[in-house]
């Protein structure tokens, strides 16, 4: 950590030192002072990471796919594997090959964007998952939401679109109105919220755990506390490895859900 | 890195309320990725993947054609081989028949020649015997008269000849020999 950084906790504070306590992480852990301010616009570290991440993704795929060869090089092979994973593993599986092809570029972009934004969590010096700020998952979930709702109405018309969204099915009889109310809330209101929050909460909690064990490791480094600090440090390592896994899983789930929403919009019966 | 942890004292807002600036940046960042991937890079790779698929399928088709051709050639060869075998069998059969005929012919010829030779032999022997008998008769007659003459003391030759006694005697002898045989 460089000298010009001011920390939210006192680094000289350790276990068994009078007059200070454990600097527990909290909501403030997710707040950054702006790097630059343009009018009322505040440019912060997560924003920088978001843009850097985008550039990294584009740079990777540019290097891999800008001049693709029939017999691929190593980088192209890795790129193709990633591309194929989303294309075949998610889009073809959920939407189908014929209908899904149109949405492959969107889903591929979405997967790698979410994954890299998550991955920042364990990249040294960055060490912050951009997606643990609700604005980033919310923006993506909103794009997906607008996409599948407009698709529904374009595919089935106004009445058909509503029938599709509300799960209209005559055979349900008397409980149909109740089902339609439930479907309305579940599909149009809860769905985008859970879509965004699932990703946000996972990354938020993961980051909180890593920060907590990191701070604890530092705080406990005094006298007998070194024993506990060791255990805490082991937890930092374990949580970092676990986060690496969770980051990929959450990116996968986010795109899987987006695909399934699009599939629902395209299907005849909800 | 200029990133700073804010002091805990500062009032944090509800973590579920999106910050507008972050929302905008997030969408811009995603738009950058989506723009590049959807407009240039993924169509690029799709083209190559399609070409590769075609190349592989072309290769498979070529292999298929080669296989079919090989199959037909093999069939042709097999047919030719069967024909050749058939022909060989036919020729062998023919040769065998011819051989048998030739052997038969040779046997007949041999038989005929043997019989001829035997017949000729018999004739020769008969002729020789006759010649020998004639010569012998003369000699024996002469010897006998000579001997008798010596015994009697005079030449009986002319008389004997004239009387034909010797001839008769010899004929008798001959008859006896015939009968004894």
TrEMBL record, chain B:
Q: Which residues form a coiled coil?
A: 46-101
> Where does the UniProt entry say this protein principally localizes?
membrane
Identify the keywords attached in UniProt to this record, alphabetized: ATP synthesis, Cell membrane, CF(0), Coiled coil, Hydrogen ion transport, Ion transport, Membrane, Transmembrane, Transmembrane helix, Transport
Which InterPro entries does the record match to this protein?
A: ATP_synth_B-like_membr_sf, ATP_synth_b/b'su_bac/chlpt, ATP_synth_F0_bsu_bac, ATP_synthase_B_chain
Per UniProt, subcellular location reads as: Cell membrane
Q: Name one Pfam family in it.
A: ATP-synt_B
Q: Record keywords: Calcium included?
A: no
Q: Which residues cross the membrane?
A: 23-42
| Keyword 4Fe-4S listed | no
Membrane association type: Single-pass membrane protein
Question: Which domain of life does the protein's organism represent?
Answer: Bacteria
What is the recorded function of this protein according to its Swiss-Prot or TrEMBL entry?
Component of the F(0) channel, it forms part of the peripheral stalk, linking F(1) to F(0). F(1)F(0) ATP synthase produces ATP from ADP in the presence of a proton or sodium gradient. F-type ATPases consist of two structural domains, F(1) containing the extramembraneous catalytic core and F(0) containing the membrane proton channel, linked together by a central stalk and a peripheral stalk. During catalysis, ATP synthesis in the catalytic domain of F(1) is coupled via a rotary mechanism of the central stalk subunits to proton translocation.
Q: What does the similarity note say?
A: Belongs to the ATPase B chain family.
Q: How does it assemble?
A: F-type ATPases have 2 components, F(1) - the catalytic core - and F(0) - the membrane proton channel. F(1) has five subunits: alpha(3), beta(3), gamma(1), delta(1), epsilon(1). F(0) has three main subunits: a(1), b(2) and c(10-14). The alpha and beta chains form an alternating ring which encloses part of the gamma chain. F(1) is attached to F(0) by a central stalk formed by the gamma and epsilon chains, while a peripheral stalk is formed by the delta and b chains.
HAMAP family linked to this entry: ATP_synth_b_bprime
- NCBIfam families the UniProt entry points to: ATP_synt_b (TIGR01144), PRK05759.1-3 (NF004412)
Designated name of the protein: ATP synthase subunit b
């Amino acid at each position: 950590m460089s000298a010009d950084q001011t920390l939210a906790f006192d680094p000289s504070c350790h276990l068994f030192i009078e007059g200070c306590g454990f600097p527990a992480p909290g909501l403030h852990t997710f707040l950054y002072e702006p790097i630059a301010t343009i009018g009322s616009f505040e440019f912060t570290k997560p924003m920088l990471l978001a843009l850097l991440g985008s550039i990294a993704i584009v740079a990777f795929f540019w290097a891999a796919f800008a001049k693709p060869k029939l017999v691929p090089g190593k980088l192209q092979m890795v790129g193709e594997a990633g591309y194929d994973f989303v294309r075949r593993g998610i889009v073809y599986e959920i939407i189908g090959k014929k209908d899904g092809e149109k949405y492959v570029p969107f889903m591929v972009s979405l997967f790698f964007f979410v994954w890299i934004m998550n991955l920042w969590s364990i990249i040294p010096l960055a060490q912050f998952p951009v997606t643990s700020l609700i604005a980033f998952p919310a923006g993506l979930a909103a794009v997906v939401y607008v996409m599948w709702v407009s698709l529904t109405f374009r595919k089935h018309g106004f009445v058909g679109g509503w029938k599709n969204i509300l799960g209209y099915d005559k055979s349900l009889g008397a409980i149909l109105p109740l089902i339609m109310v439930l479907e309305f809330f579940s599909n149009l209101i809860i769905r985008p919220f859970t879509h965004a929050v699932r990703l946000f909460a996972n990354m938020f909690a993961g980051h909180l755990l890593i920060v907590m064990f990191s701070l604890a490791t530092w705080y406990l480094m005094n006298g007998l506390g070194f024993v506990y600090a060791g255990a805490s440090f082991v937890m930092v390592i374990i949580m970092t490895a676990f986060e690496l896994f969770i980051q990929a899983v959450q990116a996968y789930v986010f795109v899987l859900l987006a695909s399934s929403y699009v599939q629902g919009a395209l299907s005849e019966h909800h | 890195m200029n990133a700073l942890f804010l002091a805990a004292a500062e009032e944090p807002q509800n973590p579920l309320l999106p910050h507008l600036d972050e929302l905008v940046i997030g969408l811009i960042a995603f738009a950058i990725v989506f723009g590049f991937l959807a407009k240039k890079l993924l169509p690029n790779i799709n083209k190559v993947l399609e070409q590769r698929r075609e190349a592989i399928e072309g290769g498979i088709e070529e292999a298929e054609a080669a296989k079919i051709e090989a199959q037909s050639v093999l069939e042709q060869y097999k047919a030719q081989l069967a024909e050749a075998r058939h022909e060989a069998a036919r020729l062998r059969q023919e040769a065998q028949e011819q051989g048998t005929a030739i052997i038969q012919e040779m046997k007949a010829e041999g038989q005929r020649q043997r019989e001829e030779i035997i017949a000729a032999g018999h004739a020769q022997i008969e002729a020789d015997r006759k010649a020998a008998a004639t010569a012998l008769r003369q000699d024996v007659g002469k010897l006998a008269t000579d001997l008798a003459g010596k015994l009697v003391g005079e030449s009986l030759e002319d008389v004997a000849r004239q009387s034909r006694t010797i001839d008769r005697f010899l004929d008798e002898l001959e008859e006896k020999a015939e009968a004894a045989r």
